[in-house]
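Lecture notes, continued. The same structure-token format from the folding unit now serves as the input rather than the output. Read the line below as a description of shape only.
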């Protein structure tokens, strides 16, 4: 068997394992455990991951050529990731569990800023947590595709970002050569976060092929499992603090 065939076989084997694991853990997916948290400073006996599904409500985020809204994909992927984390031994906290913003203020600009501040408050309520914000990308050039991770200033955040980026490339996007990037002030949540934080741009809605993939339930599960794998390499479920 030549190298190309071996590589293809290995890839299929990895995907088969991923799918088998997903089938097992999906039994847990519809339990009524998802809830938007109030501020909580109690110390959890489990390692905590705060999952932020970007946008929501009248803030739809990026829009695909077929009308796909980023906010919906973000929430789908965040829900799956949260359940995977829970059954893997983490406490998963979601900043939002429904199609809504975390503010009732009038005015689009003011509401979006207060929404971001509320997400930051939730994340800050768990000082030993890792914040993972889920988003999708868009770019004028349709050829652009592939997941990319941004990170806040801490070393642990950079390690987590690198691990997630490498895990996704290794498991489901072997052609992905993107590098992680340190967030600047344009990414409000990461720029102001007090805890290690990463933002995962799961793919480009402006790429019709990738947009179609991101809407598939099976692909969302593979993506979430790959992100989980990256988190676990830096922040294993047996640990208590990321500090």
């Amino acid at each position: 068997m030549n190298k190309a065939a071996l590589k293809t076989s290995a890839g299929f084997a990895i995907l088969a394992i991923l799918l088998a694991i997903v089938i097992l853990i999906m039994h847990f997916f519809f339990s009524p455990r998802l809830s938007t948290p109030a501020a909580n400073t109690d110390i959890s006996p489990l390692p905590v991951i705060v999952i932020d599904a970007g946008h929501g409500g009248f803030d739809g985020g990026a829009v695909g050529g077929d009308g796909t809204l980023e906010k919906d994909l973000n929430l789908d992927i965040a829900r799956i990731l949260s359940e995977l984390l829970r059954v893997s031994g983490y406490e998963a906290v979601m900043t939002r569990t429904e199609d809504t913003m975390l503010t009732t203020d009038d005015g689009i600009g003011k509401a979006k800023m207060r929404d971001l501040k509320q997400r930051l408050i939730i994340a800050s309520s768990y000082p030993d947590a890792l914040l993972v914000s889920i988003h999708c990308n868009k770019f004028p050039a349709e050829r652009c595709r592939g997941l990319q991770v941004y990170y806040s200033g801490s070393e642990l955040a950079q390690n987590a970002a690198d691990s997630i980026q490498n895990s996704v490339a290794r498991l489901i996007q072997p052609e992905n050569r993107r590098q992680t990037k340190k967030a600047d002030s344009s990414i409000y949540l990461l720029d102001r976060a007090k805890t290690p934080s990463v933002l995962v741009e799961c793919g480009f809605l402006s790429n019709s092929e990738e947009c179609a993939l991101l809407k598939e339930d099976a692909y969302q599960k593979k993506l979430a499992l790959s992100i989980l794998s990256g988190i676990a390499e830096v922040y294993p479920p047996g640990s208590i603090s990321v500090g």
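Point for the exam: The longest strand covers residues 130-137.
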